[in-house]
Amino acid sequence: MTAKIIDGKAFAATVREKVAVHVARLKDENGITPGLAVVLVGEDPASQVYVRNKGKQTAEAGMASFEHKLDADTDQATLLKLIDDLNNDPAVHGILVQLPLPGHMDEDLVINAIDPAKDVDGFHISNVGLLGTGQKSMVPCTPLGCLMMLRDHYGSLSGLNAVVVGRSNIVGKPMANLLLRDSCTVTVAHSRTRDIEEVCRRADILVAAVGRPGMVTGDWVKPGATVIDVGINRVEKPEGGTRLVGDVEFASAVEVAGAITPVPGGVGPMTIACLLANTLTACCRANGLTEPEGLTA
Length: 297
Ligand code: GUN
Known about the structure:
By secondary structure, the chain is α/β, with parallel strands linked by helices. Helices cover about 40% and strands about 15% of the residues.
């Protein structure tokens, strides 16, 4: 039996549509336009593509998009001053500083300079702590997108065995916290985990977020499990050129899993959709308005 393919592209389109409907209502009824500021330091080509897509989709959802591009050799004090200005700008409800930052900057210090209420990435230490203690917070976009797809697939996640492969601050750790909050039994596996294949084979939900192309093969997957592939790896094709692959070897996993996200077209599109959702949520909270349903954790 082959797995059901979870269509992240279509799911993301429905999330963006829900956001756009809510944004239109906010404008009509409250005269408020949610605003997202994206800060890019330097000319990293992949980051430039992300930032362009973010700006385009923000505008398509009816939100205000503010882009700030700084030279790679900008000093940290200048960036901190910009963040301070954005923190104090009432038209800006969400702030995203594109990572990675140039080597001369202290990423933790910069992220923690963002007003936690405007931290739509959910990377500020206050939001990390709030999520870890099960309190209302801003939630990192990629794990939020994974959670939305899992809730849509299962309804309730209560009691399911979840294994998250990868322990990054951006995906692995917040994903584990979100699954725990939805009453899964959660294991975080990583490069030092013993018998990792065996650990993964116990998972009803297997989330791969390690950045290693095709690491999780079909024999790591329990028959009928749901596989969420967070990896986006660019690899050389034998015939020349490149293609995107996930952390899961799709061809073998699709034969064993019950449901699986493809790469591309799975988790990837959900990340920006959730960024828009987080910006809307931040705007509603800032104005004491009801938060959108189904768009938050
Ligand atoms: N660089 C790659 N992914 C992300 C993300 O989700 N947020 C930020 N701020 N930078 C990134």
